[in-house]
Design brief:
The protein is about 55% helix and about 5% strand. The protein is mostly helical. It has two domains: about 1-55; about 75-130, DNA polymerase, domain 1 (Orthogonal Bundle), CATH 1.10.150.320. It has a two-stranded parallel ribbon.
Length: about 140
Amino acid sequence: MGWVSRARSTCSRLAEILLPPEGEVWLVGLVVLLLLLGALRHRLEPWLHGVAELPPAVETAARAVDPERFGRVDLNRADADELASLPRIGPALARRIVADREANGPFRSLEDLDRVRGVGPGVLAAIRAEITLGPAPGDTLKAE
């Protein structure tokens, strides 16, 4: 039975090497926690610097916390580039929206966008949560 005692001895030596002494368990926990925080920070880095798209639930929460940074697009003040950032609105449609606003005045409701060629129920549904209707520059229209 010499092999049993050798196996037991080997296991004891491994335990001494791999497991910390009882008083230092908190240190191992701290190291593990720091490693996890570093990995989490690395995963969130693009979002923290605005490089990556946020998941919808996180973006909604971010808008609630910081509306200035994650605010909606104002249809009566946005330029074509800002409008093109909305879902289902490309550069050409964004230019038509700006041209219509300049020709016919500010949008008073979301449904007013329907007067622009290329905007239909699908586009309205896609951008409804992304936009706001503030007063046009120099207009006295109250924000909705």
